[in-house]
Amino acid sequence: MRILLVEDDPQIGAAIASALDDAGLAADWVKDGSAALASISAGSFELVLLDIGLPKKDGLSVLKNLRQDGNQIPVIMITARDATEDRIAGLDLGADDYLVKPFRVDELMARVRAVTRRHSGNAQPLLSNGVFTIDPSNKQASYKDEAIELTGKEYRLLHALLLNPGRIFARDELEEKTYGWDEEVNSNAIEFLIHSLRKKTEKGAIKNVRGLGWMVPK
Ligand code: CA
Question: Where in the chain are all domains bearing CATH 3.40.50.2300?
């Protein structure tokens, strides 16, 4: 899954970005509110981690703009310890959750998982199409009940496909969900990952729909 991190503090931002990366999540990082809105409307993010005190446009205004435009992307606010008013305002404006700085990385990850789960309307923490199963809480994957070892990118790709079994994903969608902005993506990167996933399972595990993209069967 792809996360947009909006944080102007270079140290806090770098720490969160690297924690997300370690957790196998593709995070893009912007440093002001205007860039946040531009990125959200341009990119296919699945969650926003939003600092409140930001240059250009503060986090509460960003959230307000998003919800006024009907954008329901999950938002977790990042707030200062003494900023109770901000948290109340943010929740009232439609934030899904908040974290109080400084927070532990494992708490951040647990909240990301919980918000994602609630948002997908999926009370079950496991994602499955009946043959592939992944557990976002520990990144374990299995195929026909046999555990399979995945790289971070294979996991992200499979996660994207399993959020919507039966839906065909185009190459650029899969690239967006699998890679961050700052990563070079070879033109055959997605084929390579799919080839590797098939080798770990079987050829029909991921279907290619000629000219359109790939899917996992329902
Ligand atoms: Ca700030």
Answer: 2-120
Residue 67 CB: number of other CB atoms within 10 A?
Answer: 15
In tens, the pLDDT along 206-216 reads 999 999 999 99
Query: Are 36 and 6 a contacting pair, CB within 8 Å?
Result: yes
**How far is the centre of ligand 1, averaged over its atoms, from the C-alpha of 87 (Å)?**
14
Question: For residue 170, what are the CA distances in angstroms to 10, 144, 157, 175?
Answer: 34, 26, 12, 9
Please name the fold of domain 127-215.
Answer: Arc Repressor Mutant, subunit A (1.10.10)
Question: pLDDT at residue 57 above 70?
Answer: yes
Q: 68 CA to middle of ligand 1, Å?
A: 23
Token output for 188? 């055959």
Q: How far away, in angstroms, is 111 Cα from ligand 1 center?
A: 20
Distance 115 CA to ligand 1 centre (A): 22
Whether residue 127 contacts residue 1, with contact meaning beta carbons closer than 8 Å, is answered with: no
Residue indicated by tokens 């959200």: 40
Whole-number Å distance, alpha carbon 119 to ligand 1 midpoint, is 26
